[in-house]
Amino acid sequence: MVLTFASYIALALAFLTGFELLFRPHQRDAVQNFFEDVTRRLGQPDFKQIGQRMTTNEAQFYFIVLAYAELTIIAFAAPFILAREWQPGGAFDLQYGPSGQYVLVGFEALSFLILGQCWKWPVPGLMKFVVGNNNRWHIVLLRFLLFALVGGVFGLLWFFVLDGIQGMYGQGLDALITPYQALLFCFVLLMGLPLFLIFWVVFQAVGLMLQARTCYVRWFFALTKGALLRVVEYDKKDKKAFSAIVLVAAILLAFAKEFAS
Predict the structure, then answer these.
(1) Among residues 157, 191, 195, 198, which is most buried (max CB within 10 A)?
(2) Residue 240, phi-psi category: left (phi > 0), alpha (psi -120 to 50), beta (remainder)
(3) Largest CA distance in the chain
């Protein structure tokens, strides 16, 4: 039996409904406590004065949260935006083959697992390193541009190596038919993925900090905090933040299934 991409999404949707059976009460409590702590620490920052305290842990925390929120939005929006490109004859289908869709889904799932582990280290430490000890906007901008240049070079090299591996054996990832070829591709992917994700989050966090006075950042902060409050307050009596996350993911997957059908 051949399963379509929509079928895999349907299976993931069914699996999500059983998440609460897989996680123990203390694990669900940990999710609740985490979101409550993040929401409480966000507070009500004054973005007009943020430029005077860019070096503080408090100010940097705001923008790390925003960078994570931005990544979450992109990850869930990608299947909808790129749906046509993955259809037979589309640009991505021709370049990466049918298996490329499943690699993309696995890539996104693995990304969230990695970033969950990087929340306390090394993301905050690297952001503090990039910002430095000077609150002057132009100094932070120069350090940010240097960081972007180094990260951009690494990202391009990593992408070209991955693209070169799949190109060596034919058109698309389906050409990686031997264990050695697949192992080589997975090894390069897994070696570079954590570094790429950490760079991306810090890049976005510092970039948002430099734009703190703009309406976009203030509105995005309000939207992110509002979403976190809805998650925390969802059936708070029984600590159902975990259920709220599962519910939102299930709804998005249901829409993705319709797009992929």
Answers:
(1) 198
(2) alpha
(3) 61
Number of domains into which the chain is organized: 1
Helix axis angle, 57-81 relative to 99-117, nearest 10°? 170
Q: What is the pTM of this model?
A: 0.80
Cα separation, 109 vs 103, whole angstroms: 10
* 25 Cβ neighbours under 8 A, 6+ residues apart: none
**Dist CA 213 CA 252 (whole Å):** 32
DSSP classification of residue 237? G
- Report the C-alpha gap between 203 and 260 in whole angstroms: 32
**What residues contact residue 53 under an 8 Å CB cut-off, 6+ apart?**
59, 135
Question: Which two tokens mark 69?
Answer: 């929120």
| Helix-, strand-, coil-residue percentages of the chain, each rounded to 5 | 80, 0, 20
CA 235, chain centre distance (Å): 26
Structure tokens at 206: 């510092």
Question: What confidence tens digit (pLDDT) does each residue in 158-177 have?
Answer: 988 887 776 665 555 555 55
In whole angstroms, give the CA distance from residue 195 to residue 143.
18
d(CA 34, CA 42): 13
Give residue 58's domain range.
5-260
The residue whose two tokens read 């993911």 is 249
> In the chain, what is the straight-line distance between the N-terminal and C-terminal CA atoms, in Å?
17
- Distance CA(164)–CA(202), nearest Å, equals 27
Share of the chain above pLDDT 70, in %: 66
